[in-house]
Design goal:
There is one protein chain. By secondary structure, this protein is α/β, with parallel strands linked by helices. It has 3 domains: about 1-85, Winged helix-like DNA-binding domain superfamily/Winged helix DNA-binding domain (Arc Repressor Mutant, subunit A), CATH 1.10.10.10; about 85-140 and about 260-285, Periplasmic binding protein-like II (D-Maltodextrin-Binding Protein, domain 2), CATH 3.40.190.10; about 155-255, Periplasmic binding protein-like II (D-Maltodextrin-Binding Protein, domain 2, 3-Layer(aba) Sandwich), CATH 3.40.190.10. The protein is about 40% helix and about 20% strand. The protein has 11 helices and 12 strands. The protein has helices spanning about 5-15, 20-25, 30-45, 60-80, 95-115, 160-165, 175, 190-200, 215-225, 235-240, 270-280; strands at about 50, 55-60, 90-95, 115-125, 135-140, 150-155, 155-160, 180-185, 210, 230, 245-250, 255-265. A 5-stranded mixed β-sheet has the order 4-3-5-12-6. A hairpin with a 4-residue loop joins β1 and β2 (about 55-60). The longest helix is centred in the first third of the chain and has 23 residues, at about 60-80. GO terms for molecular function: DNA binding; DNA-binding transcription factor activity. It comes from Sinorhizobium americanum. Belongs to the LysR transcriptional regulatory family. This is Glycine cleavage system transcriptional activator.
Length: about 290
């Protein structure tokens, strides 16, 4: 048997793709998480992760092992829940891009602090029904002071696939980006308009554009190499770490909006979730 205490650290790191996020989730240091994973690898004699300077990702053996570990941990968790009759359900309504790219990788820490709460995540993009306990919404804006209650500011940077960037990478000049195909996450090019304003130049898509109605679609198109996109670094942490996307002119990062939370029901679980988000607000949502 492997050292069982190391399995949650392995499963969490595989899910988040980050030693830092796992450390926060488990109230440990990144070094402690790294040592637990190394202990597990030594015990079974297999490398579970590829490691580089600023990234960690599963090996083929790690992906295979994760399926077994996740099933085992889920069985233990379900058994534990069955012994806890006083359970609550928290319904969270949130934009799909935020839910998938920011909220889900961090939910493990909330569940650690609130083990008796079952979560239901509803996406605004999919037309959620029912009355949510917590509603997360996005509001446009360019001034930080206009978002005193926001838990995550949306700062937009220009990004693209390394294949599209060629040899220029982050050293490309802002005006040169407009000669390439631009990916718009809204029909009115709000993020690109704000980015060009911050770069002190007019917005004009000289290389053409493709418009999408969600951030998620725009990010996927960017990863596919279809053009230059705009995205919040908080929503593409893994892609930047693993080199699927690179930042262009990273010093230009204007505020284009913010994510805010409202409590609909005032239940203890909703208030606890708001407190949990407040902790992320204090760190700017960063790892």
């Amino acid at each position: 048997m492997p050292p069982l205490s190391t399995l949650p650290a392995f499963a969490s790191t595989a899910r988040t793709g980050s030693l830092t996020l796992t450390a926060r989730e488990m109230n440990l240091t990144p070094g402690a998480i790294s040592r637990q994973i190394k202990s597990l690898e030594d015990a079974i004699g297999v490398s579970l992760f590829h490691r580089s300077h600023n990234a960690i990702s599963l090996t083929d053996a790690g992906r295979q092992y994760l399926a077994h570990v996740s099933a085992a941990l889920a069985t233990i968790e379900n058994g534990t829940r069955a012994l806890q009759p006083d359970r609550a359900t928290l319904v969270i309504q949130a934009p799909i891009t935020l839910a998938r790219r920011w909220l889900i990788p961090r939910l493990g820490s909330y569940r650690q602090e609130n083990p008796n709460v079952d979560l239901s995540i509803q996406s605004l993009a999919l037309g959620a029904t029912g009355v949510p306990d917590v509603v997360i919404t996005y509001r446009r804006g360019t001034i930080e002071a206009d978002f005193p209650a926001a838990f995550l500011l949306d700062r937009s940077i220009a990004v693209c696939s390394p294949l599209l960037a060629g040899g220029s990478g982050p050293h490309v000049q802002p005006q040169d980006l407009l000669d390439l195909p631009l990916l718009l996450d809204t029909a009115d090019a709000w993020s690109w308009q704000r980015w060009c304003s911050a770069a002190q130049m007019p917005f004009k898509a000289r290389g053409g554009s493709i418009a999408f109605d969600t951030d998620e679609a725009s990010i996927d198109a960017c990863i596919s190499g279809l053009g230059i996109g705009q995205a919040s670094p908080s929503l593409i942490e893994r892609e930047l770490r693993e080199g699927q996307l690179i930042a262009l002119c990273p010093g230009i990062n204007p505020i284009v909006g913010a994510y805010e939370i409202s409590i609909s029901t005032g239940t203890p679980s909703a208030l606890a979730f708001n407190d949990w988000l407040s902790a992320w607000r204090e760190t700017g949502g960063e790892q």
